[in-house]
Amino acid sequence: MLDTPCATQIGEALEAAKSRKTVGEIYFVACGGSFALMLPNQYAVDRESKSIAGFAINAAEFTSRAPRRLGENSIVILCSHSGTTPETVEAARVARAKGALTIALTNVPGSPLDEAAEKTVFYSHAPLSMSADHSAAALYRLTFGILDVREGCSKAPALESALEGLPKLVEGIQASHADKIAAYAEAHKREPVIYTMASGANYGVAYSYAICIYQEMQWIHSAAIHSGEYFHGPFEITDFDVPFVFLMGLGNSRAMDARALAFASKYSKRLTVLDAAEFGLAELPEGLGEYIAPLVFSPLLRAYADKLADAKGHPLSVRRYMWKMDY
Amino acid sequence: MLDTPCATQIGEALEAAKSRKTVGEIYFVACGGSFALMLPNQYAVDRESKSIAGFAINAAEFTSRAPRRLGENSIVILCSHSGTTPETVEAARVARAKGALTIALTNVPGSPLDEAAEKTVFYSHAPLSMSADHSAAALYRLTFGILDVREGCSKAPALESALEGLPKLVEGIQASHADKIAAYAEAHKREPVIYTMASGANYGVAYSYAICIYQEMQWIHSAAIHSGEYFHGPFEITDFDVPFVFLMGLGNSRAMDARALAFASKYSKRLTVLDAAEFGLAELPEGLGEYIAPLVFSPLLRAYADKLADAKGHPLSVRRYMWKMDY
After folding, report:
1. pTM
2. Chain B residues near residue A226 by CB distance under 8 angstroms
3. What are residue B115's phi and psi, to 5 degrees?
4. What's the CATH class of domain B165-312?
5. What is the distance between the alpha carbons of residues B234 and B260, in angstroms, rounded to a whole number?
6. Domain boundaries, chain A
7. Which of A94, A155, A319, B143 is deepest in the core (most CB within 10 A)?
8. Check: complex ipTM more than 0.95
9. Fold identical between A7-163 and A165-312?
10. Bridge partners (DSSP) listed for residue B78
11. Phi, psi torsion values for B228, nearest 5 degrees
12. Which chain A residues are closer than 8 Å to B66 by Cβ?
């Protein structure tokens, strides 16, 4: 494993996963932006695992749904940046009481989530960059690592090497997008509605951008549309003046994204297209490119968001409700 | 089982499910409004099944994701109203070739989906009403029926009786909402954005209303917000003039909905609240009320949609792209 600050903690969590008698399922449990991070991990388990089921689920829904399978054969991975999200802390307690192996990801040692879970991985945070110790990458290391210790997964060691080059890769791509970012910010500063679209491993990033950047931090109406769902309802709102941000993925799901983009290009003049094919990930071994794509889209989109916030005069840090009152 | 036109077909599908050596998972595969119908079925499997995993997934995403577990131990339930949805037909072929038991739901005998699947259930269609032979109910009969033949599920026979009273129940509730429906239609006829909100078994109905009614049939911007996700991003777009349609559920998930409603009530003056607690479902045995709620919300919301379409002068049948061109 890459020798990074959180590698030892990931290693300990993987030891615990390895020592379990049976693992039937992994629940990926969180809220909002942290929930969005879980979606590519269910995607990875769906695609790669012979014997383990993956379920990404909002923490309040998880506790309320009370999955009947949850028990000693379950691993529950939870994430909360502050470690204080009450729904996620409660989910950790419920899961641990049921005998599941609970693994928390948080930025804050000693936080309630850290205390509630059996194992904790402390990730580093800097939304404009990406490294093997960022939350999204640490989650992948856990997920592929669990698949490796439980049933063998050659993508796990390959992932470690792929993550090594990420910080420089992201910087370079952000720099090459500078003109496009500036144009996007000016062109969208007065938009009341902006949609995002993606599929496969990138849907979580599209969801996060819709709910955390547009709705939460910019008060712009939004929804993440799945490229495969677009033609079955949502495409009827397409018009010349309706803006979409497209994330074009790699691997099998690219065809879905391409079909949606081909249609939207005919009827909307307001498309922003970010294409993972430009990221130089095709040469990664083991078909890892499609999994790495969201780790690049995420900090790249943050650069778009920063510039939009400047153009609107509405900093990403402004909130009217969040953290300001009880709710 | 209730003696209804599709009961024999459901019975044959259940026989096939029973005769399988092992069933490890059920994939619920469809697109758009039919995909929305699948969501409460994954919910039911999550809540009720000891040994079977449930996955609701868009049909194009299913084929592209190519779940590694898919095989002889899988049941794949697919739904397409016309039976012609290419992505769903393709998913049926892929699943059948892998050895899965494929069960189709469609309105059209002889359609490509009917031909592609091993078993087919033909449902009846009338969006303003609900009966045991409507698609949403037929799906539940299949899902609970499979749980019953595979591992025993006392909710399966109870469901059959609960469905019997549905047509009259729905009629009565629609009638009692007449004034509210008229007021809603007038109040929302010029809205550019309307959000829907729900959780648990009702999230699928909220999703369907957002993408099929608002976006597709009324060209109104929309998104279905999960009540448990609301506080982690989306609630920041709440304001006095932002309209939400709330579906208040039963069972455990009601607390999530109530928390979201309590907050939204303080900051928006544009709430439409439909409450399953008024449906008289609490007396149903086996805690079935929470599962029946979406079967009432769906035709009730259709009555709201019909009136909105009248007030806007924009019939629900109008499309600009769907069925009018190749895409």
Report:
1. 0.98
2. 58, 61
3. -70, -35
4. alpha beta
5. 11
6. 7-163, 165-312
7. B143
8. yes
9. yes
10. B29, B104
11. -80, -20
12. 47, 252
